[in-house]
Amino acid sequence: MKTGRPRSFCVEDALDSAMDVFWRKGYQGASISDLTDAMGINAPSLYACFESKEGLFRAVLDRYEEAGKGFLRTVLDAPSARESAEIFLKGVAARATDPQSHPPGCLLLQSGLAGDDQRIPNELARHRAEKELALRERFECARRKGDLPKSADPAALARYLVTVANGMCVQASAGAALSDLQTVADMAVAAWPVSEKKKTKRRPVAAD
User: Fold this and answer.
1) In angstroms, rounded to a whole number, what is the distance separating the alpha carbons of residues 128 and 181?
2) How many helices (H) and strands (E) does the chain have?
3) Residue 112 CB partners (closer than 8 Å, separation 6+)
4) DSSP sequence for 111-176
5) Tens digits of per-residue pLDDT, 70-127?
6) Rounded CA gap, 121 and 87, in Å?
7) By the 8 A CB rule, do 97 and 185 touch?
8) Which candidate in 55, 100, 105, 169 could, as Cys together with 51 as Cys, close a disulfide (CB 3.0–4.6 Å)?
9) How far is the C-alpha of 107 from the C-alpha of 24, rounded, in Å?
10) Of 185, 167, 24, which Cα lies nearest the Cα of 90?
11) How many Cβ atoms are within 10 Å of 43's Cβ, its own excluded?
């Protein structure tokens, strides 16, 4: 069993500081000295707690994903598939442009875009794919219940939303404002498929 001195730093605060470095510089661009300076610890402490730079990054990803679980649950629990889509895109727009909590954009997109080692890009792609899968399952349920037309493709709809969301995050990292991204979200949701049941309800009654 490993023994050693107790940690003299708050792991959660250290992870938040490391997240900011990975977000701004990417996994490859973030050096150990960049990370330890931001975290307020020395290299031996980093390795003792996280074993490696990759171990630290995976811990950062886990913290980032844990923070987003509530948002995703709100998306999936919306009364209709259209509302799920709208909440998802509007929420991404708000989170990607929030200057109080993190740099603009999305950690899953910006931290692993470069480098020869595919383990990090593959891990980031896995995290993104999990969100797409959750959306697809939500839309499959909606189609079974008649909330989406039978012709709707849940996998394509989930991919569509994730693609739009990724594009909005890239735009946010380039300086796009929240209002700009909300407009994009509105346009994307306007193209949402409507079930035959809802079309019938909206059909005007002919005058006698």
Assistant:
1) 20
2) 10, 0
3) 26, 27, 28, 120, 121, 123, 124
4) SSSS-S--HHHHHHHHHHHHHHHHHHHHHHHHHHTTSS-TT--HHHHHHHHHHHHHHHHHHHHTT-
5) 999 999 999 999 999 999 999 999 999 998 878 999 999 888 755 556 788 888 888 8
6) 27
7) no
8) 55
9) 9
10) 185
11) 11
